[in-house]
Amino acid sequence: MNQTATNEVLLRNSVLLPNALSMIENEARTLSASKDPIRRLYISAAKVIHVRLTKELADVRKELRQRGIRAEKIDIGREEAKAFIAEKIGWHMQGIVNELQHNAKNR
After folding, report:
1. What angle do helix axes 3-32 and 78-105 make, rounded to 10 degrees?
2. Of 10, 16, 87, 106, whose CB neighbour count within 10 A is largest?
3. How buried is residue 39: exposed, middle or buried, by Cβ count under 10 Å (0-12/13-18/19+)?
4. 51 secondary structure, DSSP code
5. Looking at residue 107, what DSSP letter applies?
């Protein structure tokens, strides 16, 4: 990937990752009010995803600072934003599932 494309990806991530974090926070709040007996599992997964997204956002911001890149305005379509957030959360969820499966095999 060339430098320009990488910069665009970093800028997109810097704008959309905070939205993904907000979505996870809202879902965790909703789940905490739920009576579902498995809600603790969902809340724990949401916390893990939140930590991972927070670290990812910190890494993106650090990289932008190191490159001297500042975003004035970025136009991102609603559908593109929704797809990005769903993909990002799904990717982290799959990572959690993979870790759980790996741990279950090693017991």
Report:
1. 70
2. 16
3. middle
4. H
5. -
Q: CA–CA separation, 7 vs 71, rounded Å?
A: 10
pLDDT at position 4 is 60
Helix (H), strand (E), coil (C) string for the chain: CCHHHHHHHHHHHHHHHHHHHHHHHHHHHHHHCCCCCCHHHHHHHHHHHHHHHHHHHHHHHHHHHHHCCCCCCCCCCHHHHHHHHHHHHHHHHHHHHHHHHHHHHCC
What's the pLDDT band for 37 if we cut at 50, 70, 90? confident
pTM for the whole structure = 0.85
Nearest 10 degrees: Cα torsion 50, 54, 55, 61: 160
Q: How far apart are CA 32 and CA 5, in angstroms?
A: 40
Domain boundaries, the chain: 3-105
Please provide the size of the chain in residues. 107
